[in-house]
Design brief:
The chain has nine helices and eight strands. It is α/β, with parallel strands linked by helices. The structure holds adenosine-5'-triphosphate and nicotinate mononucleotide. Pathway: Cofactor biosynthesis; NAD(+) biosynthesis; deamido-NAD(+) from nicotinate D-ribonucleotide: step 1/1.
Length: 212
């Protein structure tokens, strides 16, 4: 990250044109897996996005276990993706943000002409009310929620889903989400990929250098 002549922060970000729509998939990616790639491809199509950015988190504020080093996770994401409209960013490390509300505020001021949608699996919607300033997140960007095995009911019954039930866009209108004013959210019933980073770590297939 550098400063421009006028003192603005200049971040290294994937190339994007004014007016385009970016879906942000925040995650630990410890490690990245086919489920991340699958929901990103589905999100591009179902929410009519121009790009998806994988926002690799320096560390989820709700997880006590530290992830593998950032450089290792970024390299694994880049090796896995192989899609021209899905990109990886270490934006949170550059900006020094950890909480999503802060990340979104910083990103929106860095890219005022870009439309952002926050993407998440259904498990994250179920926990959203525990995130810092979560009402601010919902007020800032539309939320695109993708089905995840075993999480459909908990997501639908979640506090966030109940409080914002009037702002839900039906799945059949998912292509309207990005151009809807926040608060707006949409749950899409995509084919599900039964895979998680936890399972891969448990199998010992990821030589993360993380501390437990
Ligand atoms: N198989 C999947 N189906 C749907 N959503 C998923 C899937 N895997 C990950 N996601 C979503 O991707 C985002 C980033 O997930 P994350 O990097 O934490 O992977 P994870 O597999 O959930 O990891 P862990 O098992 O360590 O919690 C989250 O919004 C999560 O809900
Ligand atoms: O802002 C918060 O309080 C917050 C709490 C939990 C998770 N998040 C974000 O949610 C995304 C998914 O996290 P994870 O670890 O489940 O992959 C990632 O971008 C985290 O930074 C954010």
């Amino acid at each position: 990250m550098r400063k421009s002549g006028r003192g603005e922060m200049l971040y290294r970000l994937p190339h994007i044109r004014p007016g385009q729509v970016v879906g942000l998939l925040g995650g630990s990616f410890d490690p990245p897996h086919a489920g991340h790639a699958h929901i990103s491809r589905e999100a591009l199509r179902r929410f009519d996005l121009d790009q998806v950015w994988w926002v690799v988190s320096p560390g989820n504020p709700l997880k006590s276990r530290g992830p593998a080093p950032m450089a290792q996770r970024i390299a694994a994401c880049e090796a896995l993706i192989g899609h021209p409209r899905i990109h990886v960013t270490d934006f949170e490390a550059q900006a020094g943000t950890r909480y999503t509300a802060e990340t979104l505020a910083t990103l929106q001021s860095a890219c005022p002409a870009v439309r952002f949608v926050w993407l998440m699996g259904a498990d994250n919607l179920a926990q959203l009310d525990q995130w810092q300033d979560w009402h601010d997140i919902v007020a800032r960007v539309p939320l695109g929620v993708l089905a995840r095995p075993g999480q459909r009911i908990s997501a639908r019954m979640s506090k966030a889903a109940r409080i914002y039930r009037g702002q839900r866009i039906p799945g059949r209108q998912s292509r309207a989400l990005a151009f809807s004013d926040a608060p707006a959210w949409c749950f899409v019933n995509v084919p599900m990929a039964d895979i998680s980073s936890t399972e891969i770590r448990a199998r010992g297939d990821w030589r993360g250098l993380s501390k437990s």
